[in-house]
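Apologies for my clumsy wording, but can you show me some protein sequence, whichever is easiest, together with the matching structure tokens, please?
=====
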Amino acid sequence: MSAFAIEEPAFDVVKRYPQFELRKYKAYLVAEVVVPGPADKAGNTAFEYLGGYIFGKNKGSRKIAMTAPVSQTPAPIKIEMTAPVAQTATEGGYLVQFAMPREFTMDTLPEPTNPKVKLREMPAQTYAVLQYSGGWSQSLYEEKLGVLRRVASEANLKLEGEPIFSRYNAPFSLPFLRRNEIWIKVISE
């Protein structure tokens, strides 16, 4: 939990390495939206939709407690073609997610009134996670992502999928006090 006691998805630390952790996350629910880039603007754009959802823009006008992290990852969007099963992936911007409080199930979460906001259960999954403080610049993110990929490879972990950039603090937090993480799915140890 963070210093402000904001709820986070539950996980167990499988192993601690000098620069990162291997974590097994339990399944959790998210509200998510796909927004256009660039990466450094996606979170603010998404907040209009996701913040609206948790502040009451949902069926029943229910307010939902803020949780952490706010996660962001590049999102390809599949476009159905005219042939029955053919699909083409294209860069679709960024998938931004708010974790939902554990008190909810898919049946008890209020339905979003904005069709862009989707609800989904994230499956239990193991991630290599590198934590760092500092600003949210693309250059710092890419530097830390490079470190995580290198040290995970040195630990003989096989990674898969797009990295997930997770932010735990409000934008007005001082950068040196911010908790940022990069998660990458681990498919074999």
Observations:
- The first strand starts at residue 11 and ends at 16.
- Confidence is low (pLDDT under 50) at residues 77-90.
